[in-house]
């Protein structure tokens, strides 16, 4: 969060930016609407697997529609004005927009009434509080800045992984619970597609042919704005003799542990890819818990800073009760639980049934139908 002293100046600057963008957008809205759908993300430099599924499904449902994918991960601030102008143009001239992240162009501008905006968040659910539900926390944004930037406004619909996430997502995105539809996201279809999983497994084994001799532990921790994640503690406890370990860190965490024996840190594969070969998943407050539950992988929770994190960020869930696996504050206890096979697939299945929509292969189809104008009641 910015310092209290700077907040008024930042908020004023944000309001001026909004005024300029609004004026530019008014001109762009004079252009005619095209037969086009825009998919917008600021998380990735290339098209995500979720967006690939959505793009293909739009073409299947209506081949006459053009699909534009904007992958605007802001690695260079100098590129932001050009990205923003491109986003505004496509928002002004599209029938629908699907996004997987917070996009200022969606939130700060007043769109045509005909534009349908679907927030398809990049996670099936949330353990930690985020968005509007985390304002003025140590890891959240300033409420004044969020208000000035109209943070998370402009959505017609928000997609959630399952019914238990309706209330948290309504709070995080500032919408009515009736606007949050627990219909799952494309990753549910991906994680249940045997051909896709087999292809991922084959790609990983071609890149890392030594895998398979030992159980594979996937460690996917949450990014912290304070002291970095204690990756070394868990790696020391696991040891190189009993396990192969894949470490997947947040893009902002550039530390590299691949020089350690039996540790893989290969960013050419996503965390979603590694679920195709993982035998165990260790995490803390990450939404990977929902994805791993869909696949059906034993889960373990290395929550060494639980009370501090709960106070600093806040959690949506009753952590000790809801997490589908052993929770430990000591890395050695986590590894002992793995050795003792304390990760219960029954607990994982129960969590999946409670938090994720049934996997019937139709999540992507329903999201696209919604964006193209279908009513929520007709998304069977």
Taking Cα atoms only, what radius of gyration do you get, to the nearest Å? 21 Å
What is the CATH-assigned architecture of the largest domain? 3-Layer(aba) Sandwich
Shape: globular
Indicate the CATH topology of the largest domain. Rossmann fold
Q: Any overview of this molecule?
A:
This protein has 380 residues and is of the alpha/beta class. It has two domains: 7-188 and 360-378, 3-Layer(aba) Sandwich (Rossmann fold); 193-355, CDP-glycerol glycerophosphotransferase, C-terminal domain (Rossmann fold, 3-Layer(aba) Sandwich), CATH 3.40.50. The chain is built from 16 helices and twelve strands. Helix 5 (143-148) links the parallel strand 4 (116-120) and strand 5 (157-159). The model has no long low-confidence stretch (mean pLDDT 93).
Please give a quick description of this structure.
With 380 residues, the chain is an alpha/beta fold. The chain has 16 helices and 12 strands.
């Amino acid at each position: 969060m910015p310092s209290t002293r700077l907040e008024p100046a930042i908020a004023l600057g944000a309001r001026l930016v909004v005024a300029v963008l609004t004026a530019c957008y008014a001109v762009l809205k004079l252009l005619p609407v095209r037969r086009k759908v825009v998919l917008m993300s600021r998380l990735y430099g290339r098209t995500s697997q979720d967006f690939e599924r959505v793009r293909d499904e739009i073409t299947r449902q209506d081949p006459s529609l053009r699909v534009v994918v904007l992958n605007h991960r802001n690695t260079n601030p100098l590129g932001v004005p050009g990205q923003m102008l491109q986003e505004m143009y496509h928002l002004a001239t599209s029938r629908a927009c699907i996004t997987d992240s917070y996009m200022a162009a969606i939130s700060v501008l007043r769109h045509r009434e005909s534009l349908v905006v679907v927030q398809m968040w990049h996670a099936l659910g949330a353990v930690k509080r985020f968005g509007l539900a985390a304002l003025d926390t140590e890891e959240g944004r300033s409420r004044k800045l969020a208000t000035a930037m109209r943070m998370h406004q402009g959505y017609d619909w928000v997609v959630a992984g399952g019914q238990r996430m309706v209330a948290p997502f309504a709070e995080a995105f500032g919408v009515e619970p009736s606007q949050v539809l627990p219909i799952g996201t494309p990753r549910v279809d991906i994680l249940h597609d045997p051909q896709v999983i087999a292809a991922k497994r084959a790609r990983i084994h071609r890149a890392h042919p030594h895998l398979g001799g030992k159980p594979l532990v996937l460690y996917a921790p949450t990014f912290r704005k304070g002291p970095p994640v204690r990756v070394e503690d868990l790696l020391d406890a696991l040891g190189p003799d009993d396990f192969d370990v894949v470490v997947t860190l947040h893009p902002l965490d550039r530390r590299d542990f691949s020089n350690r024996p039996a540790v893989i840190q290969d960013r050419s594969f996503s965390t979603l890819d590694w679920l195709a070969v993982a035998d165990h998943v260790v995490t803390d407050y990450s939404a990977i818990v929902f994805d791993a539950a869909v696949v059906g992988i034993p889960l373990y929770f290395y929550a060494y800073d639980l009370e501090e994190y709960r106070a600093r960020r806040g959690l949506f869930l009753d952590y000790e009760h809801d997490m589908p696996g052993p929770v430990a504050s000591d890395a050695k206890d986590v590894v002992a639980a793995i050795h003792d096979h304390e990760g219960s697939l029954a607990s994982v299945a129960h969590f999946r049934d409670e938090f994720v929509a049934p996997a019937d292969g139709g999540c992507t189809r329903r999201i696209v139908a919604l964006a193209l104008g279908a009513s929520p009641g007709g998304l069977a």
